[in-house]
Design brief:
alpha/beta, Rossmann fold, nine-stranded mixed beta sheet, 6 helices, 11 strands, about 25% strand, globular
């Protein structure tokens, strides 16, 4: 590419491009999908992994404690990372296992599956926790909405999500090594005027034993009510 102005000429070379067809295949051709629990786009899963585990030469192990249909685990395996996954739902564990079996038969993935099991992220003890290099997950997003809920309903849903995610962070804190990075996709709710309602726990992260390592990022479509807010955290001593 050549760009010419009155005083200079800029010459640039493209060194990479997104393979949209490959993204669509990994999203839409997998054997198991579930619109009710949410469909995390593979591209967003990649972004979360990049935020939680920047490029490194050493072997990493990624934990997804809310693995759903396995999208984060899938993208981590393609990065060459080993993976540990769990989910509260037996159905989601079955979906994850089927999707990762499909991935192994259709793609070359250098990473290995260490463990996939049914577990409640708010009270489970991961046997491999001390070997976890980073946590990347889409947490519980609460009830889906096609229009902004009433204030009482919003308060109820926010409180429920805040409780579950706080309990998860409290549970996993003593299991992680100091400074372990995490990237969590948590819910944020868009109102008709474009303002966002955030989880209260974001203001109290230090009391849970975490700190933000960069400002949160919001991922949402223009017509979406429940947005995803990406929190990039580091495990610290509890304040």
């Amino acid at each position: 590419m050549v760009i010419k102005s009155n005083s200079s000429i800029i010459v640039a070379e493209s060194i990479g491009a997104q393979n949209i067809t490959a993204y669509a295949k990994r999203d839409q051709q997998r054997p198991k999908r579930d619109a009710f629990v949410g469909m995390l786009p593979p591209k967003l899963a990649q972004i979360m992994l990049n935020l939680a585990a920047p490029t490194t030469s050493r072997q990493l192990t990624i934990l997804d404690p809310f693995c759903g249909t396995g999208t984060v685990l899938q993208e981590a395996l393609l990065r060459g990372f080993d993976v540990v996954g769990s989910d509260l739902s037996d159905k989601m564990i079955d979906y994850t296992q089927q999707n990762l079996t499909w991935l192994a038969s259709t793609h070359h993935a250098d990473g290995s599956v260490i463990d996939i099991r049914q577990a409640d992220a708010t009270n489970h003890t991961w046997n491999s926790a001390k070997t976890i290099s980073a946590v990347a997950c889409e947490t519980y997003l609460g009830q889906p909405f096609s229009a902004p809920p009433s204030p009482p309903k919003l308060k109820e849903v926010v409180g429920n999500c805040n409780h579950i995610i706080s309990q998860f962070l409290t549970n996993i804190h003593p299991q992680l090594s100091p400074n372990t990075p995490l990237c969590l996709a948590v819910p944020a709710w868009l109102s008709t005027d474009g303002s966002l309602t955030h989880l209260p726990l974001i203001r109290k992260l230090s009391h849970l034993g975490y700190e933000l390592t960069r400002p949160p990022l919001v991922y949402a479509r223009p017509d979406q009510v429940v947005a995803r807010e990406l929190l990039v955290l580091r495990r610290t001593p509890i304040a």
